[in-house]
Amino acid sequence: MENSDSDEQEKKRPHLNSLSPTMARSSTTSPPNNHSDLEAKIKELKDKQDAIIQLPKIDDMMEREVKNLREAIDILHVKQKEYADVIRTYLSSQSTDQSEISRITGELDDSMTELEESRGKLVNLKMQKEVASGMHNLTSGAVNGTYHLKNQQKGQ
Asked: pLDDT-based confidence at 134, cuts 50/70/90?
């Protein structure tokens, strides 16, 4: 009869049909992993508690990091303003320098023109002097009687 009792128990617990009858008899109604599930839940709770404990620390770290980043941004902003001022000054002085260069170039061109005119006048004066000097030599030679002799000597 024991056999029939065990058959009835197997019918009552169809989910255990895949187990052997011996294992089915020795099994309890509680799941075998209950202890490990409990440990997993405890560990999860500890992790959550650790996370809750760590949140203020993380918040403090984030606040310090934000403060540091803001200080760095402020420093960079000041440097950017300084560089912008330097660039504006450079551009302004470059514009002034370009104007000065143009003015000096114009003056140089004028001076070069005057110099060329002066050279031309100097060449004319030298030529006039040579002509006048040559005429003076001709007239002084004719008076002394040497003109004729000089021309003859040059021809030889």
From this structure: confident
Cβ within 8 Å of residue 6, ≥6 positions away: 21, 25
Q: CA–CA separation, 55 vs 64, rounded Å?
A: 14
Residue type, 76: L
| Neighbour tally for 21: CB within 10 Å | 14
* Token pair listed for 115: 């110099």
pLDDT in tens, 31-63: 556 778 888 888 888 888 887 888 888 899 999
Q: Are 17 and 2 in contact (CB under 8 A)?
A: no
Q: Which two tokens stand for residue 91?
A: 């551009």
The confidence score (pLDDT) of residue 49 equals 82
DSSP-assigned letters across all residues of 25-92: HH--SS-TTHHHHHHHHHHHHHHHHHHHHHHHHHHHHHHHHHHHHHHHHHHHHHHHHHHHHHHHHHHH
**Are residues 147 and 141 in contact, defined by beta-carbon separation less than 8 angstroms?**
yes
Q: What does the angle CA 119 – CA 125 – CA 128 come to, to the nearest 5 degrees?
A: 145
16 secondary structure, DSSP code: G
